[in-house]
Automatic annotation (TrEMBL):
Binding positions (Fe cation): 95, 137, 141
GO molecular function per UniProt: metal ion binding; peptide deformylase activity
Taxon lineage: Bacteria, Pseudomonadati, Campylobacterota, Epsilonproteobacteria, Campylobacterales
PANTHER family linked to this entry: PEPTIDE DEFORMYLASE
Catalytic function, reaction form: N-terminal N-formyl-L-methionyl-[peptide] + H2O = N-terminal L-methionyl-[peptide] + formate
Active-site residues from the entry: 138
Gene Ontology biological process terms in this record: translation
Organism: Candidatus Sulfurimonas marisnigri
EC number: 3.5.1.88
HAMAP family found in the cross-reference section: Pep_deformylase
Pfam family, one: Pep_deformylase
Cofactor details (free text): Binds 1 Fe(2+) ion.
Name this protein carries in UniProt: Peptide deformylase
Length: 173
């Protein structure tokens, strides 16, 4: 299965993802392909909508201290529900769907998420730090929200201007 990253301003990124109800070989192929795309793109998280599949699926693989992302550390989160949120933190986020742009985004510091794994088993995960931030970032994608949607009006205008400039440069090269 060959997947490509959907990039802003593609309207597909605004689509709300649907729950997964079949935990079959097709789902496993999608999850495996998502992992390879995320790693090749040097990302730490990916939502299925970012590869044009409007399904409630996200994957996270935080780098180790050696800056490696072994598949053993991969977290596959299907049909997530965030059941607890507390604290506040700010982190400079980027996104594979909005390449080359980074902005400080406010998030909850601690979350608890209930979800299913690739076999449909119910799981619960308490997260803080970068894991919490990454889950919230990808979870937003499932609802059609990009990190740039969380910017203030003035920061969003600045982003739009910069984005158009970069696109123009890309097209002229």
């Amino acid at each position: 299965m060959i997947l490509n990253i959907v990039e802003y301003p593609n309207k597909k990124l605004k689509e709300k993802s649907k729950p997964v109800d079949k935990f079959d070989q097709q789902l496993h192929k999608l999850l495996d392909a998502m992992y390879h795309v995320m790693i090749e793109s040097r990302g730490i998280g990916l939502a299925a909508i970012q590869v044009a599949h409007a399904k409630q699926i996200l994957i996270i693989n935080l780098p180790t201290e050696e800056d490696e992302q072994p598949i053993d550390n991969l977290i596959e989160i299907i049909n997530p529900v965030i059941t607890h949120k507390s604290g506040e933190t700010t982190y400079q986020e980027g996104c594979l769907s909005v390449p080359s742009f980074y902005e400080d985004i406010n998030r909850f510091e601690y979350i608890t998420v209930n979800y299913q794994d690739r076999h449909g088993n119910t799981k619960s995960l308490e997260a803080d730090g970068l894991l919490s931030i990454a889950i919230q970032h990808e979870y937003d994608h499932l609802n059609g929200v990009l990190f740039i949607d969380k910017l203030s009006y003035s920061r969003r205008k600045k982003f739009e201007k910069e984005y158009k400039r970069v696109q123009k440069e890309k097209n002229n090269s």
